[in-house]
Each structure stands twice: as structure tokens, then as C-alpha cells.
Amino acid sequence: MTPEQEQAWRAKLEALRDALEQEHSSLTEASRPVELSPSIGRLTRMDALQQQQMSLAHRDRIRNRLQAISGALARLDAGSFGECLACGGDIEPRRLEARPEAFLCLDCQKNKG
Ligand SMILES: [Zn+2]
Description:
Blueprint: H1 3-30, H2 42-78, H3 93-98, H4 106-112
The chain binds zinc ion.
């Protein structure tokens, strides 16, 4: 990888990380504990709880992605960015374009599940 490519990936990963961090903190606002006051109806309360669950799950996914992104940045520093962690082969460029934090090639990702 050329230094220019490396810089481009770093900028891309950092922009993605910033956007996800922002989304993460806005979800933290949205997933505050639901107030179980008897004055709100049962259905409303279930709605609120369900929404809270959904935003918690969403937040977990974002957190996992943020972890993957910091891993990708570390691999960029180590010079192994773009290599599959399982087989050591190259991760498909199109896959990296879509998910720069990917750490498995398509085959290994499939075999994993
Ligand atoms: Zn692989």
C-alpha cells in the first residue's frame, strides 16, 4: 500500500469513527431508563420499553463497529491493514470500500458463521 492510500484509509476510518461516536452519544440520550410511572398507559410503557431495547441493540452494534474501526486503525499503523486476520490473504477491495473496518475476507467471514 502506498503512503497516499494509507492516508486515505486513515481519513476514511477516522471520519467513520467520528460519525459513529456521534450517533452513539445521541443513542445514549435516547436509551435512558424508561420512567415506570403509573400515569402512563401500559401500552405506551411497552412501546417505550421496546424502543429502548431497540436503541440499546443499535448502540451495541455501533460499539462493536467502533471497536473494529480502532482495530483497523491499529492494523494501518502496523502495516497489515487489508489483510484477512484468519487466512492472511487480501480482503476484497470492494468489501473494504463498503466496510473499511472489515478484518476477514469474504470466504473466512462465510466460514465463520
Ligand atoms: Zn480469509
